[in-house]
Amino acid sequence: MSPQANIFDRNIMLRSLRQKLEEKTDQKTKESGPKFFKEQVKLHGVKTATVTKISKEYFEYVKDWKKDYIFDLCEELWKSGYLEESFVACNWSYSLHKQYSLEDFFVFDKWLRLYVNNWASCDTLCNHTIGTLVERYPELMEKLVQWTQSKNRWLRRGAAVTLIIPARHGKFLHEIFRIADALLIDKDDLVQKGYGWMLKAASEAHQKQVFDYVTKNKSKMPRTALRYAIEKMPKELKKEAMEK
């Protein structure tokens, strides 16, 4: 297909991709999938490993298209509301990470605001696509801090889970604590789990600092977030952190 993809090309691609997903529907997966979510999710019923394989296969057809055209395809996948199609959109947008520019944040921010409606899509988009962009452009950190004040639970969770991979590498500790401070007493359990996971990831490189943060704030921190944050710490530190 031509790099100058038109609407006709994109429609053919989307129909073919969706047909392929439907062909790989697994009834057991379709029935068991909703159990992992509190909210209602739309599923083709395709195993995640199979979705990843299909995603890579179809990306070969579009990889030479302009980035904006591929992002347009991704947005059409997001609009469907299907979990598996959101995964393909995340995989494709991350596959373009070498072409990222600062302005791409506004595209990804739009997807998160308008289309994300479950933790799996949130985490897949934020962990890889947005996390990689923020790592490249640290000045975007202020946007994440702004997300912590949103009424949208996925933006608040996204503020934390965007930093999971950089946190594991020991990066952005100051900013991680800023975001944890902003989310500290959030009442949404998925947000609590999100920032607890962020602190857990940071503890891999900065165990003492994260432990000190947790013990300083444990009287206010929800137990859900606290348990996540200390999950990888030694037994004796876990015990101390959990003591009231």
Summarize the SSE layout with pairings:
Blueprint: H1 7-23, H2 27-32, H3 48-62, H4 67-80, H5 83-95, H6 104-114, H7 119-136, H8 141-147, H9 153-161, H10 164-168, H11 173-183, H12 189-203, H13 207-217, H14 223-229, H15 235-242
Helix pairs in contact: 1-3, 3-5, 4-5, 5-7, 6-7, 7-9, 8-9, 9-12, 11-12, 12-13, 12-14
* Alpha carbon gap, first and last residue: 63 Å
Low-confidence stretches: none
Instruction: Give the domain tally.
Output: 2
How many helices? The count is 15
Chain-averaged pLDDT: 94
Rg is: 19 Å
Number of strands: 0
What is the name of the CATH topology of the largest domain?
A: Leucine-rich Repeat Variant
- Report the major sheet: none
Notable features of this structure?
single chain; 244 residues; Leucine-rich Repeat Variant; 2 domains; globular
In short:
The chain has 244 residues and is mainly alpha-helical.
Characterize the structure shown.
- The structure is a single chain.
- The protein is mainly α and 244 residues long.
- It has 2 domains: 1-99, no CATH class; 118-244, Alpha Horseshoe (Leucine-rich Repeat Variant).
- Helix content is 68%, strand content 0%.
- The protein has helices at residues 7-23, 27-32, 48-62, 67-80, 83-95, 104-114, 119-136, 141-147, 153-161, 164-168, 173-183, 189-203, 207-217, 223-229, 235-242.
- The mean pLDDT is 94.
